[in-house]
Amino acid sequence: MEKSEATTIEVAETSRERKGKAPLLAAVVAAEHHAKAAAHKRGVAIFDLILRISAAAAALGATVAMGTAEQTLPFFTQFFQFQASYDDLPTFSFFVIAMAIVTAYLVLSVPFSIVCIVRPVAAAPRLLLILLDTLAVTLATSAGGASAAIVYLAHNGNSDANWLAICQQFTDFCQRVSGAVVGSFIAVALLIFLVVLSAIALKKH
Amino acid sequence: MEKSEATTIEVAETSRERKGKAPLLAAVVAAEHHAKAAAHKRGVAIFDLILRISAAAAALGATVAMGTAEQTLPFFTQFFQFQASYDDLPTFSFFVIAMAIVTAYLVLSVPFSIVCIVRPVAAAPRLLLILLDTLAVTLATSAGGASAAIVYLAHNGNSDANWLAICQQFTDFCQRVSGAVVGSFIAVALLIFLVVLSAIALKKH
């Protein structure tokens, strides 16, 4: 290795006279450039893996927090006991399903992220990850946005539509649900970062 | 050009004997490869521009449809006239603001898309577009998802939370609002396609 570098420098200095060695020079320079780009891309891929696991944890937390959100009030009438559960509102059911899909995708995409670490210059797994990450961003954002709209309504109500706030009664339920929405937004932020990171790694060096 | 190609073939056939011509060969091959990749990327960039203008039109349509949604019912009491407007619901106000931002971004990004057509191998404008397109996807999806949740509630109500459906009275208003939500989802689909397309164009050839 030492020797070939010395040759490179020598060839560079006297390149006009010794054109016969030029292909060797080109090959050495290309290999060095390639190795540098690969090291850079490997670093990005390791960061990608860490972010991916964090996003999976956030998405899992959001799914579990929403899926276990229920509250039974301590008072009841003769005919009726007041209780709230996430599946009373279709939007929250959608949230649980969508975030479960996102969590499953993020866990299943870890092997592809590892492939990107092992073979940093391969473009195909990265393109696949960008495509699926973008779809995951959309799914997680729609779940988070829709639930945020309903949580806002549950907290504040709406006098024009005559919808009353229910959070005065169901305090714990509302806190749990709000936490789940925050978790989904953390997952969304990490996923956006993942897409941008993959795009940077795809860039030609 | 014809002549240099002939030289290329000759050199390729007798490359072992005539190493001195190899740099010329390499340069010619590299230039041809570069031109091919540039033509491919230019095609992608033109498609990008068309999709971008379509997405801007969809986003503009959604903004205007929501922003002009209001209905006054033909009956009224002595004290009260029944009317619905988009700004009665904070989620719909958010929708108008978010979709207006997305529309403005899409219109302002057209020059960058044109730069990608003129200089197809430049990576910097494409990376910028991927980053901002991903943020626009998130904004449009959150607006569309949140409004879809409220529209669903307006259509169906929710007996558990004691929220009544308002679409039996405000038919036109609900139709207009639903149309706006559909428009935002069309814009989201086009934006996802734009992100994937930019990623493909960034790929090394």
Layout of helices and strands:
Two copies of one chain form a homodimer.
Chain A: H1 2-13, H2 22-67, E1 70-76, E2 81-85, H3 90-108, H4 110-118, H5 124-156, H6 171-202
Antiparallel strand pairs in A: 1-2
Mean pLDDT of chain A: 83
Cα(first) to Cα(last) distance of chain A is 23 Å
For the largest interface, the chains and their residue counts are:
A-B, 49 and 49 residues
Overall tally of structural domains of chain A:
1
Could you explain how this protein is built, in words?
The structure is a homodimer of 205-residue chains. By secondary structure, chain A is mainly alpha-helical. Chain A has one domain (39-202). In chain A, 74% of the residues lie in helices and 6% in strands. The first copy, chain A, has helices spanning 2-13, 22-67, 90-108, 110-118, 124-156, 171-202, and strands spanning 70-76, 81-85. Chain A has a two-stranded antiparallel sheet with strand order 1-2. In chain A, a hairpin with a 4-residue loop joins strand 1 (70-76) and strand 2. In chain A, helix 2 packs antiparallel against helix 4 (110-118), helix 3 (90-108) packs antiparallel against helix 5 (124-156) and helix 5 runs antiparallel to helix 6 (171-202). The radius of gyration of chain A is 27 Å and the shape is elongated.
